Amino acid sequence: MYVNEQMHHLGSNRSVIRELFEYGKIQRAKVGDDNVYDFSIGNPSSPPPKAFQQALIDLLQTMDPISLHAYTSAQGDLSVRRAIAEHINGRFGTAFTADNLYLTSGAAAAITLCIKAVLLPEKNEEVLVFAPYFTEYRTFTEGCGGKLVVVPPKMDDFQIDFLAFEAALNPRTKVVIVNSPNNPSGVIYSEETIVRLCDILRQKEKEYGHPIYLLSDEPYREIVYSDAEVPYLTKYYKNTFVCYSYSKSLSLPGERFGYALVSGEMEDWQNVYYAVCGAGRALGYICAPSLFQYAVARCLGMTSDLSSYRVNRDLLLDSLTAYGYHCATPDGAFYLFVEALEKDANAFSEQAKKHNLLLVPGDDFGCPGWVRVSYCVSTDMIRRSLSAFQALAKEYGK
Amino acid sequence: MYVNEQMHHLGSNRSVIRELFEYGKIQRAKVGDDNVYDFSIGNPSSPPPKAFQQALIDLLQTMDPISLHAYTSAQGDLSVRRAIAEHINGRFGTAFTADNLYLTSGAAAAITLCIKAVLLPEKNEEVLVFAPYFTEYRTFTEGCGGKLVVVPPKMDDFQIDFLAFEAALNPRTKVVIVNSPNNPSGVIYSEETIVRLCDILRQKEKEYGHPIYLLSDEPYREIVYSDAEVPYLTKYYKNTFVCYSYSKSLSLPGERFGYALVSGEMEDWQNVYYAVCGAGRALGYICAPSLFQYAVARCLGMTSDLSSYRVNRDLLLDSLTAYGYHCATPDGAFYLFVEALEKDANAFSEQAKKHNLLLVPGDDFGCPGWVRVSYCVSTDMIRRSLSAFQALAKEYGK
Asked: Which of A31, A171, B113, B323 pairs with A281 at a CA distance of 20 to 30 A?
């Protein structure tokens, strides 16, 4: 084989999530759509706001089509970046401008560009993540020539285990990714956690003599069930990137639109921003889809109707707890992280399949022994699935 | 500075094209919009077909919005890939299926993914391009850890200089990029050129004992002024990638939609395809924008009205030739490649600016001594610019 083996490996090894999804399609054909309970996928189940669909149609009907579909500047249309910066400032009391924003094809692109911009592979620099973590962080990091370092969580509340964190930090640590509300646990990091995290990072920056960049990946920022404020990290730490996507808040995952924000308080931020722009060029990004740039700018602050996720969460959490399952505190996102009823979450997931319950084992998220339940599904499917969850628990003596 | 210097360099060094474009904005404010003749940019000046705009609106008005905006599979929606494969087969007599196609965010992404998929940086493998070449090939190649090797053209007709080509080939050559119709020369490679190119590649593959991948970058395939057929390269050479974009044919450059085709006759094609999929993951591509996937599938075979480009080409070519300029034969794309009237094309471009003519020096395209004139502009602007071209020629004694 003459191809790049790392790329081949990534492309030929289906993710567990994708495997389950494909299994679900086959199983549905066998036993009927209504009898398979697919909790594997994170596709929003609430439609985009009507006003957003209307904004797209209005743009298509009224804006000069040549301008509408033309290249924007690589970092995104200036007026769109301005509008987004003002929106962020209004919401979080920050003082960003268009120049802090680089619009991207979704958060995946934003994360990849930020890592590529600051990581020095020749120095074996590392990206640190907290388990449970979104599995593709590993892919993005290794694709940029970096090494992913995983810090296990405190298993009682899934907040950061600071002893483990300090043990993992070292002079090669260049980026620390925080994902709160978290995929797959649904946990939100408390302000206390964030303050302590930032204190340690500042201390280590001094000790190592170079910046450690905090990267806040926050596609689930709007999907929050508690009264707790999700801390906005640029206010706690200067060397912060914010990577955002409209995939979940506006239910647009297939359209690929988000941004990387380079905090203006970041040390040498202009040069970091240039490096993000350069990474965009090097990785073949030209600009974020222009129609979606203009449409999102007209709908800032709107979200899809997120109330069904709350209904789903409450129903699942209450029911599963009643059946004897133990779950991480799901304050946000649309995932419930459930302790498997046997040590091996893969075996547990196989057992669940016998009840036509498709649950993603937590091993690839860095948390063996747990499974992820994506509840961005119809409430009706959840209702139908409950007896299967109960039967599964009974098999384990609950 | 603690950022990745290669990325910083790419992001902070504006391209000559961008510099000229910014200069044009300032100059227009000074002397008036109508008195600056900006031939710097390659943004289509013909709107998308009305049917395409209508397809977008229909999808927004009639398709379930959750499905419309959902993630498609990473390689693109199956039905869309099927439709594109069938369209290609109908047009070129090929026998591709959905499995040969990986839909991308434009041709830039497609090229980057193909290079990343097959290049082995640890073996110092090289990507070979023929001058004049699209400047970002260097960026994409170096971003994947490869080395770009530039082969100068035959200066009389801008076809391939095969002596120079054979001299540049070596056991590290892994990818050869062909861009016909060419940006920036407008030249189309004749079938004779392609046949000879492929014969040499096959011979060298045997000699080196590994595949050399031919990558056909063809966003301008539909913009052709001669009767000559633009050869479809999978029919001439097995180890061929076709990278295509709808940016120019449907006037959608800002929306980012295209594909990489991995020829089914390619040696070990399935593994190469997997590696393309893996590169997509590693570089943070999730899927091509879903709305545009579905809309393009409804409009296959359509193009924007390309007739104005022909009018522009004829007007410019005839006029410039009459004024004493010498141009490459512009059989396609929307660029005229003009020999500068002094040895240093940068100095010539500066001189042209005094007449408010914005012409891109060819140095970055690998052809010092020439300038690129993008004629995807209004015919009216070209008419107004002619006296400036004439005055410029006169200064050089023409």
From this structure: A171
CATH code: domain B68-297 is 3.40.640.10
pLDDT of residue A14 exceeding 80: no
Contacts B109 to A, Cβ<8 Å: 284-285
**How many Å apart are CA B289 and CA B256, to the nearest integer?**
8
pLDDT, one tens digit per residue, over B9-41 is: 999 987 788 788 889 889 999 999 999 999 998
Nearest to A364 by CA among A336, A345, A338: A345
Predicted local distance difference test score (pLDDT) of residue A121: 94
Interface with A, mutate which of B14, B71, B125, B139 (most A CBs under 10 A): B71
Which residues fall within 8 angstroms of residue A335, CB to CB, at 6 or more apart?
A42, A182, A183, A184, A185, A186, A372, A373, A374, A375
Task: Report yes or no on whether pTM surpasses 0.90.
Answer: yes
Residue B256 has pLDDT above 90, yes or no: yes
CA terminus-to-terminus distance, chain B? 51
Residue range(s) in chain A whose domain bears CATH number 3.40.640.10: 64-297
Q: What is this model's ipTM?
A: 0.95
**What residues in B contact A60, CB-CB < 8 Å?**
53, 56-57, 60
Element (H, E) at A128: strand A126-130
**B325-357 CB burial, b ≥16 within 10 A, e <16:** bebbbbbbbbbbbbbbbeeebeebbebbbebbb
Q: Which two tokens stand for residue B127?
A: 């990507």
Q: Name which of B7, B53, B210 is nearest A117 (Cβ-Cβ).
A: B7
DSSP letter (8 states) at residue B267: T
Average pLDDT, chain B: 96
Residue contact A7–B282, C-beta within 8 A: yes
Among B124, B286, B293, B376, most A C-beta atoms within 10 A, so best to mutate, is B286
**In which residue ranges of chain B is CATH 3.90.1150.10 found?**
5-48+304-395
**The pLDDT of residue B128 is above 80:** yes
For B242, the enclosing helix (H) or strand (E) is: strand B240-245
B118/A4 touch (CB, cutoff 8 Å), yes or no: yes
What is the nearest CA distance from A394 to chain B, expressed in angstroms? 36
Q: Which chain A residues touch B271 with a CB distance below 8 Å?
A: 1, 3, 8, 12
Task: Say if residues A272 and A118 touch (Cβ distance below 8 Å).
Answer: yes
Q: What is the pLDDT of residues A225-274, one digit of tens each?
A: 988 789 999 999 999 999 999 999 999 999 999 999 999 999 999 999 99
Tokens of B231: 């050869």
Sort strands A126-130 and A101-104 into parallel, antiparallel or unpaired: unpaired
Query: Does residue B42 contact residue B376 with C-beta atoms inside 8 Å?
Result: yes
Which regions of chain B carry the CATH code 3.40.640.10? Answer: 68-297
What pLDDT does B19 receive? 83
Radius of gyration of chain B (CA): 21
Q: What is the pLDDT of residue B16?
A: 82
CA distance to A33, A105, B385, per residue, from B393 (Å):
73, 45, 13
- Rounded to the nearest angstrom, the minimum Cα separation between A175 and chain B is 11
CATH class of the A5-48+304-395 domain in this structure:
alpha beta
Q: Give, to the nearest 10 degrees, the angle between helix A345-353 and helix A379-395.
A: 110
Reported as a pLDDT band with limits 50, 70 and 90, residue A395 is: very high
pLDDT tens profile A202-237: 999 999 999 999 999 999 999 999 887 899 999 999
Give A100→chain B minimum CA distance, Å: 14
Q: Which fold has domain A64-297?
A: Aspartate Aminotransferase; domain 2 (3.40.640)
Q: Are residues A284 and B71, on separate chains, in Cβ contact within 8 Å?
A: no
Closest approach of A282 to chain B, Cα-based (Å): 5
d(CA B390, CA B398): 9
Specify the amino acid at residue B235: K
